[in-house]
Amino acid sequence: MRIFIFFLLTPFFVFPLDENQMEKIAIEKVLKKDFEGALKIYEELYKKNPEKPSILQNLSNLYILLKKEDKAEEVLKNLIKTEPEKSYAYKILRLLMMKKGKFLEWQNISAEWYTKTKNEESLKALIGAIVRTGNFSQAIKLMKKNRFQVPELEEIKENTKIKNLIFLITLDTFRFDLIGKNVTPNLIKLIDESYFFKNAYSVSPITLPAHCSIFTGLSPRHNGVKDNSIYRLKDEAETLPEILKNYGYNSYAFISSYLLNRRFGLDQGFKAYQDNFIPLDKKKHFPSTRRAFDTISEAIKFLNNLKEEKAFFFIHLYDTHAPYEPPFPFDEAYPESPYKGEASYMDFVLGNFLNLLKKAKLYEKSMIIVISDHGESLGENGEPTHGFLLYEPTLHIPFILHLPEQKIKKEMDTMASQVDILPTILSILKIKYKKLDGENLFNLKDEREIFSET
């Protein structure tokens, strides 16, 4: 008799893992920071079930984490088809597309989102997308149609008595590289009819010292103001409004931040210094601020009641200063950069103001100076905002000078400083002035050096 003995070489059967088990393993790998391992599992799951929301969401997150943004974009587009009512995928997809400059494509996607959901969140996203593509008039129509508040500046009255206006508009914390047709189309329009100083630099990356230099033509070490709040411009300092007053100009100031409150001495020579807004804002932050719309609205009220033939208006706009919290729809237009959203909002209000000046036939009678006090680091060189370091992001600033009836653009390569504003304005008006740190920018004979300090 033969006996046959069989050995079972495989003691058990291996069953394939189901989706839930695979997801559990992938999540464990994520917790262990094995992101590549988790990605391989989720890619396999995606092939098996390309419509399961949890797989799509986690896969897109891993692609973003591993900087595979093109693949993340593809997966997110599938996710919004699967769950059109959920906003998560739309918001992440918007950030990716804004970063890549796909503004028109995002507008089309946000329009589809609104068509599918008809809710306020998708409508706001659509309006923001329209703003981002530069179609402000269409965005405003859509806002009004859906009863969103659209603040509108008061009309500027025609006044034939006015012969000469000077507007000095400072843009607080405004980098030079914000200038461009996408973010600041209205400033570009102004530049096209102005002298544009491409190489202008701040004397200090701090608000009060920079403004004191603008108004005295002296550097911080000579005008004595080197920081915010703890310094005051001395009474014996001679300011631009004080000089202009001797030549028949009344001066009016409209301030957007407590940092330029009259207690710091910058009100010298002004007939009215409008800094009496609410001492502390609703959140009780310090310093208190107000929006560009509110500040320019106050300036228009004074302008509409002007009795004299010539006047000087100083308008200080503060929106691009931290914290960056742009109002709707600019928050929706620039979700990836609230700082740019603030700049775009400020440009929009300023553009409306300039258009009203043209409509009232006062633009051709106006000298308009637009300049920043300083820029913003935005994390470059290890500095989150400004005030400590002297690098290009905080020192290089836009400087625009528009003369009455000017129609053409003139780019200037001259090295320019804020201390040059006072002597340049006075030279244009043919007013003599004493020796200053600044110079008439239209009469420079030699190459020069300019200085900044902090």
Key terms for this structure?
454 residues; alpha/beta; 9-stranded mixed sheet; 17 helices; 9 strands; elongated; disordered N terminus
Describe this structure in words.
There is one protein chain. The chain has 454 residues and is of the alpha/beta class. The protein has helices at 19-31, 35-48, 53-65, 69-82, 88-99, 103-117, 120-132, 136-145, 185-191, 207-216, 220-223, 240-245, 292-304, 330-333, 338-359, 392-395, 421-428; strands spanning 164-171, 195-201, 250-254, 272-274, 310-317, 366-372, 396-397, 399-402, 410-417. Strands 1, 2, 3, 4, 5, 6, 7, 8 and 9 form a nine-stranded mixed beta sheet that branches.
Produce the secondary structure layout.
Elements: H1 19-31, H2 35-48, H3 53-65, H4 69-82, H5 88-99, H6 103-117, H7 120-132, H8 136-145, E1 164-171, H9 185-191, E2 195-201, H10 207-216, H11 220-223, H12 240-245, E3 250-254, E4 272-274, H13 292-304, E5 310-317, H14 330-333, H15 338-359, E6 366-372, H16 392-395, E7 396-397, E8 399-402, E9 410-417, H17 421-428
Parallel strand pairs: 1-5, 1-6, 2-9, 3-4, 3-5
Antiparallel strand pairs: 2-7, 2-8, 6-8
Helix pairs in contact: 1-2, 2-3, 3-4, 4-5, 5-6, 6-7, 7-8
